[in-house]
Design a protein that fits this description.
Elements (H helix, E strand, L loop, with lengths): L1 E4 L19 E4 L3 H9 L5 E4 L5 H11 L2 E4 L2 H10 L6 H8 L7 E7 L7 H14 E12 L4 E12 L2 E13 L5 H7 L4 E7 L4 E7 L2
Helix pairs in contact: 4-5
Protein backbone atom coordinates (compact mmCIF):
# COMPACT_ATOMS: atom_id res chain seq x y z
CA UNK A 1 0.00 0.00 0.00
CA UNK A 2 1.20 3.50 -0.83
CA UNK A 3 -0.36 6.33 1.13
CA UNK A 4 0.39 10.00 0.66
CA UNK A 5 -1.03 13.45 1.32
CA UNK A 6 -0.89 16.16 -1.29
CA UNK A 7 -1.60 19.83 -0.65
CA UNK A 8 -3.77 21.70 -3.08
CA UNK A 9 -1.67 23.86 -5.40
CA UNK A 10 -2.69 26.54 -7.90
CA UNK A 11 -4.02 25.23 -11.19
CA UNK A 12 -1.30 25.03 -13.83
CA UNK A 13 -1.50 24.59 -17.55
CA UNK A 14 -1.68 20.94 -18.48
CA UNK A 15 1.71 19.57 -19.43
CA UNK A 16 1.90 18.09 -22.91
CA UNK A 17 1.02 14.39 -22.93
CA UNK A 18 3.92 11.95 -22.96
CA UNK A 19 5.08 10.59 -26.28
CA UNK A 20 2.62 8.03 -27.52
CA UNK A 21 3.57 4.39 -27.65
CA UNK A 22 2.27 2.25 -30.46
CA UNK A 23 0.40 -0.08 -28.10
CA UNK A 24 -1.32 2.69 -26.11
CA UNK A 25 -5.03 3.25 -26.60
CA UNK A 26 -6.35 6.79 -26.15
CA UNK A 27 -9.83 7.19 -24.67
CA UNK A 28 -11.84 10.39 -24.42
CA UNK A 29 -13.78 10.03 -21.20
CA UNK A 30 -17.21 11.48 -20.45
CA UNK A 31 -17.29 9.92 -16.99
CA UNK A 32 -13.90 10.89 -15.50
CA UNK A 33 -14.82 14.63 -15.40
CA UNK A 34 -17.89 13.78 -13.32
CA UNK A 35 -15.79 11.68 -10.95
CA UNK A 36 -13.39 14.60 -10.51
CA UNK A 37 -16.30 16.97 -9.95
CA UNK A 38 -17.64 14.75 -7.18
CA UNK A 39 -14.28 14.71 -5.41
CA UNK A 40 -13.89 18.47 -5.79
CA UNK A 41 -16.89 18.98 -3.50
CA UNK A 42 -14.67 17.98 -0.55
CA UNK A 43 -11.94 20.25 0.85
CA UNK A 44 -9.42 17.40 1.29
CA UNK A 45 -10.87 14.28 -0.38
CA UNK A 46 -9.68 10.78 0.44
CA UNK A 47 -9.10 8.60 -2.63
CA UNK A 48 -8.37 4.88 -3.03
CA UNK A 49 -6.73 3.65 -6.24
CA UNK A 50 -7.07 -0.13 -6.70
CA UNK A 51 -4.53 -0.22 -9.55
CA UNK A 52 -0.77 -0.04 -9.64
CA UNK A 53 1.18 3.09 -8.69
CA UNK A 54 1.23 5.59 -11.58
CA UNK A 55 3.30 8.65 -10.71
CA UNK A 56 1.61 11.10 -13.12
CA UNK A 57 -1.82 10.08 -11.80
CA UNK A 58 -0.74 10.73 -8.21
CA UNK A 59 0.48 14.17 -9.28
CA UNK A 60 -2.71 14.83 -11.23
CA UNK A 61 -4.98 14.22 -8.23
CA UNK A 62 -2.65 16.02 -5.86
CA UNK A 63 -2.46 19.17 -7.97
CA UNK A 64 -6.16 19.45 -8.68
CA UNK A 65 -7.77 18.14 -5.52
CA UNK A 66 -5.29 18.13 -2.64
CA UNK A 67 -6.04 14.44 -2.09
CA UNK A 68 -5.02 12.00 0.54
CA UNK A 69 -4.49 8.97 -1.69
CA UNK A 70 -4.16 5.29 -0.81
CA UNK A 71 -2.78 3.13 -3.63
CA UNK A 72 -3.92 -0.44 -2.98
CA UNK A 73 -2.66 -2.61 -5.83
CA UNK A 74 -5.42 -5.23 -5.88
CA UNK A 75 -4.54 -6.00 -9.50
CA UNK A 76 -1.21 -7.37 -8.27
CA UNK A 77 -2.97 -9.33 -5.53
CA UNK A 78 -5.40 -10.95 -7.99
CA UNK A 79 -2.54 -11.76 -10.37
CA UNK A 80 -0.58 -13.43 -7.54
CA UNK A 81 -3.57 -15.61 -6.59
CA UNK A 82 -4.12 -16.54 -10.25
CA UNK A 83 -0.48 -17.43 -10.83
CA UNK A 84 -0.46 -19.66 -7.74
CA UNK A 85 -3.75 -21.36 -8.66
CA UNK A 86 -5.46 -19.94 -5.57
CA UNK A 87 -8.31 -17.95 -7.10
CA UNK A 88 -10.79 -19.80 -4.89
CA UNK A 89 -9.29 -17.92 -1.95
CA UNK A 90 -9.97 -14.48 -3.42
CA UNK A 91 -13.39 -13.88 -1.81
CA UNK A 92 -12.00 -14.34 1.69
CA UNK A 93 -8.88 -12.33 0.85
CA UNK A 94 -10.75 -9.41 -0.70
CA UNK A 95 -13.20 -9.24 2.17
CA UNK A 96 -10.44 -8.19 4.56
CA UNK A 97 -7.80 -6.67 2.26
CA UNK A 98 -8.87 -3.02 2.64
CA UNK A 99 -8.55 -1.86 6.25
CA UNK A 100 -9.76 1.74 6.01
CA UNK A 101 -12.74 2.54 8.28
CA UNK A 102 -16.27 2.41 6.90
CA UNK A 103 -17.61 5.72 5.54
CA UNK A 104 -14.11 7.19 5.31
CA UNK A 105 -13.45 7.48 1.55
CA UNK A 106 -14.66 10.04 -1.00
CA UNK A 107 -13.55 8.32 -4.22
CA UNK A 108 -12.49 4.88 -5.46
CA UNK A 109 -10.74 4.07 -8.75
CA UNK A 110 -11.50 0.47 -9.71
CA UNK A 111 -10.32 0.70 -13.33
CA UNK A 112 -10.92 -2.73 -15.00
CA UNK A 113 -10.30 -4.85 -11.89
CA UNK A 114 -13.75 -6.47 -11.84
CA UNK A 115 -13.15 -8.05 -15.26
CA UNK A 116 -10.68 -10.38 -13.52
CA UNK A 117 -12.95 -11.53 -10.69
CA UNK A 118 -15.51 -14.29 -10.67
CA UNK A 119 -19.03 -13.58 -9.43
CA UNK A 120 -18.41 -14.38 -5.75
CA UNK A 121 -15.11 -12.47 -5.48
CA UNK A 122 -16.65 -9.50 -7.27
CA UNK A 123 -19.63 -9.41 -4.93
CA UNK A 124 -17.42 -9.51 -1.85
CA UNK A 125 -15.17 -6.70 -3.07
CA UNK A 126 -18.08 -4.55 -4.28
CA UNK A 127 -19.80 -4.83 -0.90
CA UNK A 128 -16.60 -3.79 0.89
CA UNK A 129 -16.08 -0.79 -1.40
CA UNK A 130 -19.67 0.30 -0.82
CA UNK A 131 -19.00 0.26 2.93
CA UNK A 132 -15.90 2.42 2.55
CA UNK A 133 -17.57 5.24 0.61
CA UNK A 134 -18.93 8.24 2.46
CA UNK A 135 -22.31 9.72 1.64
CA UNK A 136 -21.85 11.60 -1.63
CA UNK A 137 -18.80 9.51 -2.54
CA UNK A 138 -18.03 8.27 -6.06
CA UNK A 139 -16.70 5.03 -7.53
CA UNK A 140 -15.28 4.84 -11.07
CA UNK A 141 -14.82 1.60 -13.00
CA UNK A 142 -14.68 -0.12 -16.38
CA UNK A 143 -16.60 -3.31 -17.19
CA UNK A 144 -15.95 -5.36 -20.31
CA UNK A 145 -18.94 -6.66 -22.26
CA UNK A 146 -17.39 -9.54 -24.23
CA UNK A 147 -16.63 -12.97 -22.78
CA UNK A 148 -13.02 -13.56 -23.81
CA UNK A 149 -9.83 -14.89 -22.27
CA UNK A 150 -7.79 -11.94 -21.02
CA UNK A 151 -4.00 -12.03 -21.18
CA UNK A 152 -3.60 -8.33 -20.33
CA UNK A 153 -5.25 -5.53 -18.40
CA UNK A 154 -4.93 -1.80 -18.88
CA UNK A 155 -2.67 0.53 -16.95
CA UNK A 156 -4.65 3.77 -16.92
CA UNK A 157 -2.68 7.00 -17.31
CA UNK A 158 -4.55 10.30 -16.98
CA UNK A 159 -3.47 12.75 -19.68
CA UNK A 160 -6.16 15.37 -18.94
CA UNK A 161 -9.49 15.68 -17.16
CA UNK A 162 -11.26 13.94 -20.05
CA UNK A 163 -8.44 11.92 -21.62
CA UNK A 164 -7.06 8.52 -20.60
CA UNK A 165 -4.16 6.55 -22.01
CA UNK A 166 -4.61 2.77 -21.69
CA UNK A 167 -1.34 0.85 -21.66
CA UNK A 168 -1.55 -2.99 -21.77
CA UNK A 169 0.01 -5.00 -18.93
CA UNK A 170 0.46 -8.74 -19.35
CA UNK A 171 -1.27 -11.03 -16.83
CA UNK A 172 -1.80 -14.75 -16.36
CA UNK A 173 -4.70 -15.56 -18.74
CA UNK A 174 -8.11 -15.57 -17.11
CA UNK A 175 -11.65 -15.62 -18.44
CA UNK A 176 -13.35 -12.21 -18.25
CA UNK A 177 -16.37 -12.14 -15.98
CA UNK A 178 -19.02 -10.30 -18.03
CA UNK A 179 -21.67 -8.44 -16.05
CA UNK A 180 -24.77 -6.93 -17.58
CA UNK A 181 -25.83 -3.51 -16.31
CA UNK A 182 -28.53 -4.97 -14.06
CA UNK A 183 -26.01 -7.25 -12.32
CA UNK A 184 -23.49 -4.42 -11.93
CA UNK A 185 -26.09 -2.29 -10.16
CA UNK A 186 -27.09 -5.11 -7.81
CA UNK A 187 -23.47 -5.91 -6.97
CA UNK A 188 -22.84 -2.54 -5.26
CA UNK A 189 -25.32 -2.30 -2.36
CA UNK A 190 -26.30 1.24 -1.47
CA UNK A 191 -24.79 2.80 -4.62
CA UNK A 192 -26.56 4.13 -7.70
CA UNK A 193 -25.29 4.40 -11.27
CA UNK A 194 -24.87 8.11 -12.01
CA UNK A 195 -23.45 7.63 -15.51
CA UNK A 196 -22.69 4.71 -17.82
CA UNK A 197 -21.12 5.04 -21.26
CA UNK A 198 -20.42 2.20 -23.69
CA UNK A 199 -17.08 2.83 -25.40
CA UNK A 200 -16.09 1.71 -28.88
CA UNK A 201 -13.94 -0.98 -27.26
CA UNK A 202 -17.12 -2.65 -25.91
CA UNK A 203 -16.17 -1.57 -22.42
CA UNK A 204 -18.67 0.18 -20.16
CA UNK A 205 -17.28 3.22 -18.33
CA UNK A 206 -19.35 3.64 -15.19
CA UNK A 207 -19.70 6.11 -12.34
CA UNK A 208 -21.42 5.12 -9.08
CA UNK A 209 -22.51 7.51 -6.34
CA UNK A 210 -23.50 6.95 -2.72
CA UNK A 211 -26.63 9.01 -2.04
Amino acid sequence: MLTGFFRRSPRKNDAPPPAEQTNDVIVTSKVLPRFLSALAQQSAPVLIDLGSVVGPNVGFFGERLGCKIHVEDLLADVEAHTRLGERDRLPQFLGTRLTQPDDSVDGILCWDLFDLLDKRAGQVLAARLSQLLRKGGALYGFFGTTAVDLDSVSRFLIDAENRLRLRPMAITPVRRNVLVTRDIIKMFPGLIVAESVLLKSNTRETLFRKP
